């Protein structure tokens, strides 16, 4: 009986990952990895965990490939892209904790037959939105096909599997990619030619093939003989079924243009009449490393009342718990900042050298202030207004987000206020997204001067208060003799 109990206990432990995730059924597997459904024990949230065998990727020389995939998934956070929440590792395994998309592959839906035009258009619009977002950040998918397009509970499309993706820094001196990759039926003719290709144009071709499949229920270029199929792709030989509207035929002709120079671009696609029908640009922001739709903001806060339960960053559990302490109102109607203990202060500096405690370090900066939390938050809002940044507030945290899209996305800055002593606070500023040089310019020209000005204002205010109190005391002292004389 004891042996049976021990066996059950071992089995339960084997399903427990890092004490935080309970592994469930196998969702899929490949040569180097397998994907399991899992449950976050703290939040109860369902996730997909991709488990990669370290030994296999080392033998296959794929270390840089895995690093690139992590970097890309961190860079492309969008509502129509499967999210990477966290990366963990042991001596033998690497774990990608990812968004679990319940609806499965779009391929399974198309396998049952062609889709209605409005549904196909909606998926195409969402796919193009995601691809445009990737291209703006220098990321090219290079393997777009229905098997890599997933559907969530709401029937929304999510682009997945960035394993074959390339980034702009892989481009050779001629400005082109030269790696042969992709799935035969969806690959662009210029990739087959092996003369170098534009990653953006290759993705557009694949999107065209996907659109044809969604609307027709079969491939535009198909042959049991792969070489014969390649010849058809190379010549751009395809025929549209009779149920395709003239507008759709015209768009597909531009998408599946064998000449990448004259092939339609994404801005042109987004201006196309067939594409624009019912199209709505998604407004979203990233909070705690999670993509949040502006429309779902109220719902998001209802489900995630504690913004730290789902932290994606590699902060320790102690750090997460510390941040959530004292977030309730302290009687003044304002949230009280989390207090720092000695260990927190030491962790700010390298080793035990506290000399550079409040100096900038890479993508982080810290400032000490005697100003009230409300004044600091107001000052941050004032700075954001000057540079036309969007402001989001939650307890003692303020997120500032720029509107200018760069290769690395808009500049996003998180400021958090911690209590150092009852009269002093630390303002911790971190770059969460965007270009480092732009972040440094913003800190030096806008943020630093504004916080220094606030400190000077607070110092002057304290001096005035002190003088006022001294005057009050001296006045009462001068009044004492006259009051004494009037006594009977």
TrEMBL record:
GO terms for molecular function: ATP binding; protein serine/threonine kinase activity. Keywords: ATP-binding, Kinase, Manganese, Nucleotide-binding, Phosphoprotein, Serine/threonine-protein kinase, Transferase. GO terms for biological process: signal transduction. Its cofactor is Mn(2+). ATP binds at residue 50. It holds the Pfam family Pkinase. Its EC number is 2.7.11.1. Residues 21-275 form the Protein kinase domain. Residues 458-488 are annotated as: Disordered. It comes from the Eukaryota. InterPro entries: Kinase-like_dom_sf (IPR011009), NAF/FISL_domain (IPR018451), NAF_dom (IPR004041), Prot_kinase_dom (IPR000719), Protein_kinase_ATP_BS (IPR017441), Ser/Thr_kinase_AS (IPR008271). CDD domains: CIPK_C (cd12195), STKc_SnRK3 (cd14663). CIPK serine-threonine protein kinases interact with CBL proteins. Binding of a CBL protein to the regulatory NAF domain of CIPK protein lead to the activation of the kinase in a calcium-dependent manner. Belongs to the protein kinase superfamily. CAMK Ser/Thr protein kinase family. SNF1 subfamily. This is non-specific serine/threonine protein kinase. It comes from Clitoria ternatea (Butterfly pea).
């Amino acid at each position: 009986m004891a042996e049976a109990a021990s066996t059950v206990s071992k089995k339960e432990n084997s399903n427990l990952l890092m004490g935080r995730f309970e592994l469930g059924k196998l969702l899929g597997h490949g040569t180097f990895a397998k994907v399991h459904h899992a449950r976050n024990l703290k939040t109860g949230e369902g996730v997909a965990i991709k488990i990669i065998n370290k030994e296999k990727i080392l033998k296959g020389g794929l270390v840089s490939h895995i690093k690139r995939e992590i970097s890309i998934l961190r860079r492309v956070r969008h509502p129509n892209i499967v999210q990477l929440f966290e990366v963990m590792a042991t001596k033998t395994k690497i774990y990608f904790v990812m968004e679990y998309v319940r609806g499965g592959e779009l391929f399974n839906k198309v396998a049952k037959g062609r889709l209605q035009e409005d549904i196909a258009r909606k998926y195409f619009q969402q796919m193009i939105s995601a691809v445009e977002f990737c291209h703006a950040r220098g990321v090219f998918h290079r393997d777009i096909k229905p098997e890599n397009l997933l559907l969530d509970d709401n029937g929304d499309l999510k682009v997945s599997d960035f394993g074959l993706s390339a980034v702009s820094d892989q481009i050779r001196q001629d400005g082109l990619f030269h790696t042969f990759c992709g799935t035969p039926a969806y690959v662009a003719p210029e990739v087959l030619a092996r003369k170098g290709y534009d990653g953006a144009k290759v993705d557009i071709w694949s999107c065209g093939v996907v659109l044809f499949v969604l609307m027709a229920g079969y491939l535009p270029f198909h042959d049991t003989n792969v070489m014969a199929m390649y010849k058809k792709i190379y010549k751009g030989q395809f025929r549209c079924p009779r149920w395709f509207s003239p507008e759709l035929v015209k768009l597909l002709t531009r998408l599946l243009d064998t000449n990448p120079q004259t092939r339609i671009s994404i801005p042109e696609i987004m201006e196309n009449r067939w594409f624009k029908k019912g199209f709505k640009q998604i407004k979203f922001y990233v909070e705690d490393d999670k993509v949040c739709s502006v429309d779902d903001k109220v719902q998001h806060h209802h489900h995630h009342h504690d913004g730290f339960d789902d932290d994606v960053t590699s902060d320790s559990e102690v750090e997460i718990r510390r941040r959530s302490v004292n977030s309730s109102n302290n009687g003044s109607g304002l949230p009280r900042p989390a207090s720092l203990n000695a260990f927190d202060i030491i962790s700010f500096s390298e080793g035990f050298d506290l000399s550079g405690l409040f100096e900038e370090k890479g993508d982080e900066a810290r400032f000490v202030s005697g100003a009230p939390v409300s004044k600091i938050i107001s000052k941050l809002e004032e700075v954001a207004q000057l540079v036309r940044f969007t402001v989001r507030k939650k307890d003692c945290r303020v997120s500032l987000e720029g509107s200018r899209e760069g290769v690395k996305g808009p500049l996003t800055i998180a400021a958090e206020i911690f209590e150092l002593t009852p009269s002093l606070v630390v303002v911790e500023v971190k770059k969460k997204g965007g270009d480092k040089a732009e972040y440094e310019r913003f800190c030096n020209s806008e943020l630093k001067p504004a916080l220094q000005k606030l400190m000077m204002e607070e110092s002057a205010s304290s001096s005035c208060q002190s003088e006022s109190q001294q005057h009050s005391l001296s006045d009462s002292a001068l009044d004492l003799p006259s009051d004494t004389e009037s006594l009977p």
